[in-house]
Write a structure and sequence with these properties.
Layout (H helix, E strand, L loop, with lengths): L12 E2 L4 E2 L2 E2 L4 E6 L6 E2 L5 E4 L7 E4 L13 E4 L7 E7 L3 E9 L13 E5 L2 E6 L5 H6 L1 E9 L3 E8 L6 E2 L1 E7 L6 H4 L3 E10 L21 E2 L10 E5 L16 H4 L1 E5 L5 E6 L5 E9 L12 E6 L2 E6 L1 H5 L4 E8 L6 E10 L3 E2 L1 E9 L6 H14 L23 E5 L6 E7 L21 E3 L20 E3 L6 E2 L12 E3 L4 E5 L6 H4 L3 E3 L5 E3 L11 E2 L2 E2 L1 H32 L7 H29 L5 H8 L1
Parallel strand pairs: 4-6, 17-18, 30-31, 31-32, 32-34, 33-35, 34-36, 35-37
Antiparallel strand pairs: 1-4, 2-3, 4-16, 5-6, 7-8, 8-15, 9-14, 10-13, 10-16, 11-12, 11-14, 13-17, 17-28, 19-20, 20-27, 21-26, 22-25, 22-28, 23-24, 23-26, 29-30, 38-39
């Protein structure tokens, strides 16, 4: 069992680039988190620790014997009871790159139950630590640090706890430091492996590094003493120097000078031997550190030794020949196909006695499959819209790690290319959900079955709910309203249960083919659905509170007809105008004829007036006389 766990938080501390011996570290993202702490604090090494109270769930605790812990951040902890759900996670936005992560985990009977908890911990969807009760007594009482290197390639890192049975996972503190992406031969190892620390020690010195001493390590690495790793039959001689060691604090690994200013060798002709505890199922990266700090060794060939790993002689080292005196040198090797839980490292003398400044041992943990990013975002949107309760543990990656159950009520499987995980089933029937179905559900392109029945969901059915993959849909016994989207008719549904809702409007005709082709469909108990029998017929021009499609088509045809008639009238008028030269004025002949007729009528009127006047005076009418003469 590893001694601790790894966790990411959302609390950033942006530090100025660190300087040491004129060397500038180009990365400035660093996090120091006091898990369970109520306020920010500064430790004895002038490092600021931030409280996590605004950024996580769970509950806070205090170790039972705080006087046994000197740093304040080691006295507090955060735990996740079963009421918080089986899976609790933290997500932090980070620049894409590689990160060093260190955690402190402690129990110290904070809950008075004298039962150290069992739980698992994952980073970026990959299971990295298993804690099983009972813990070793020393670790339980005093806690333990552990660390790893992880590559974040999506700008977001997540770390999740998974409680075993009714136990509550715990975490004491967290540190995150951005490091060089090319460090530890990542070009060869790749970015799809985590480097989990199984032992990092400095030879000939006590434990040192950030959090333990004022010594600087740009990556934040702490270095243990090699005493507990050393084989008992080694006759050790310690070496140390205060002289400057060249080739230190250089890109990409930035190993500190302090590491090379001490070393161990052996007296006599014996070998220098170490025993490292490992998990035989994994491969391991061994990183050796050398510096010739013995002033008596002044030429190549005076100190030569073989590196023997698990009985295999893998290389021969002459430090002075490689880099000279008082200069840092390192060499690494990947150990594969282990058959034992103990990895042995022996430096066997060839000429003179072997020398070693430090050694790192990292398990190469391959990254597990993770959920397709679009589906992660869709599931998070559903979590918010459905108001999924905390007790269901909908945190982190919906499907990863594959060693754990997916989110409660969620089933996943690898995609066709087996490069990622996809969501295939959601079963949240009768969970007391009171939200609505997010439109983002359309991004779940591999969803086969959706059951949200017997809840209190409101709102409309999203148009994206019609994936080609969808075969079973049960949204019965909710308070869903609006119409059934046409998109449902294009899916591969074999079961459709939408009964006992508030749905209305026309049901797509294609949806009824589910029942025709041997499937099952139930739409009864809704507000005003219409369509094919046994549902009532839909109004010709009116459908669920608005014009139906038929009504809109009829209005469109009527408007088109009227428009065509108007065009025809205008066209006819234009033709008549062209034939008669009609310009809204009277022709000249008509005007002349009218003038002559008006003149005749005036003359006739004057003659009649004159005759009437003569008759009144007794004069014979000229008109009559003329008539008689005739």
């Amino acid at each position: 069992m590893l001694a601790s766990s790894v966790l990411f938080f959302i609390l950033p501390i942006l530090l100025s680039p660190l300087l040491s011996s004129g060397v500038q570290f180009p990365f400035n993202v660093s996090y120091n988190i006091d898990c369970g702490g109520s306020t920010n604090s500064v430790d004895q090494f002038n490092r600021t620790w931030l409280s996590d109270r605004f950024y996580t769930g769970g509950s806070t605790g205090l170790v039972s014997e705080p006087l046994h812990f000197h740093p304040l951040q080691e006295k507090t902890l955060r735990f996740f009871p079963p009421s918080s759900g089986k899976k609790n996670c933290y997500v932090v936005d980070l620049p894409i790159g590689r990160y060093y992560v260190r955690t402190f985990t402690v129990y110290d009977n904070y809950d008075g139950k004298s039962h150290s908890p069992s739980f698992d911990l994952s980073v970026e969807g990959t299971l990295v630590f298993n804690w099983r009760s009972p813990w070793p007594e020393d670790i339980s009482q005093h806690g333990a640090y552990s660390d790893l290197f992880v590559y974040v390639n999506d700008g977001e890192a997540d770390v999740c706890f998974y409680g075993i049975a009714t136990d509550s996972p715990v975490i004491g503190s967290l540190e995150i430091v951005q490091i060089d992406a090319s460090s530890y031969d990542s070009a060869t190892i790749g970015t799809n492996h985590m480097l989990v620390n199984y032992g990092r020690f400095s030879c000939g010195s006590d434990q040192w590094g950030p959090g333990f001493t004022n010594d600087t390590d740009f990556f934040g690495r702490s270095w243990q003493s090699d005493v507990e790793f050393r084989a008992k039959n080694s006759n050790i001689k310690r070496l140390s120097t205060s002289k400057t060691i060249v080739n230190t604090s250089q890109s990409p690994n930035y190993f500190p000078m302090r590491l090379y200013q001490s070393a161990v060798t052996v007296t006599g002709n014996g070998a220098l031997e170490y025993e490292l505890q490992v998990d035989a199922k994994l491969d391991y990266l061994l990183w050796f550190h050398f510096a010739e700090i013995d002033a008596s060794v002044t030429a190549a060939g005076k100190r030569v030794f073989d590196v023997v790993i698990n009985g295999n002689n893998v290389t021969r080292i002459d430090v002075y020949k490689r880099v000279g005196g008082f200069a840092a040198d390192n060499w690494h090797y990947v150990v594969k196909n282990l058959s034992d839980t103990v990895l042995t490292v022996k430096l066997a003398p060839f000429v003179g006695a072997p020398i070693l400044s430090g050694l790192e041992n990292y398990a190469l943990v391959p990254a597990d499959l993770s959920t397709v990013p679009d589906q992660v975002m869709a599931m998070r949107a559903l979590k918010e819209s459905l108001r999924v309760p905390d007790r269901m543990g909908w945190n982190g990656d919906p499907c990863a790690p594959v060693n754990w159950d997916a989110w409660e009520g969620v089933t996943c499987h690898p995609n066709k290319e087996e490069t990622a995980l996809v969501v295939s089933q959601i079963d949240l029937g009768n969970q007391g959900l009171k939200g609505f179905i997010s439109d983002q559900i359309g991004h779940l392109s591999n969803l086969v079955s959706l059951n949200l029945s017997s809840n209190f969901l409101e709102g409309t059915l999203p148009s994206g709910l019609g994936q080609k993959s969808l075969a079973r849909l049960d949204l019965s016994n909710n308070q869903l309203s609006g119409s059934i989207p046409e998109s449902l008719a294009s899916s591969s549904l074999q079961l459709v249960l939408l009964n006992d809702n508030l749905l209305e409007g026309r049901v797509p005709d294609e949806l009824f083919s589910v029942g025709v082709h041997g499937g099952s469909i139930d739409l009864l108990g809704n507000k005003a659905l219409c369509g094919v029998s046994p549902l009532p017929s839909c109004p010709l021009f009116w459908d669920h509170g608005s014009l139906s499609t038929g009504g809109k088509v009829a209005i469109g045809l009527a408007c088109s007809f009227i428009f065509c008639v108007l065009l025809l009238v205008i066209y006819i008028c234009c033709i008549r105008r062209g034939n008669n030269d009609y310009d809204f004025g009277l022709p000249q002949d008509l005007m002349s004829l009218a003038a002559k007729r008006n003149k005749y009528q005036r003359q006739k009127s004057l003659m009649l007036l004159e005759m009437e006047s003569q008759h009144a005076k007794g004069f014979p009418s000229t008109l009559n006389l003329q008539s008689e003469s005739s």
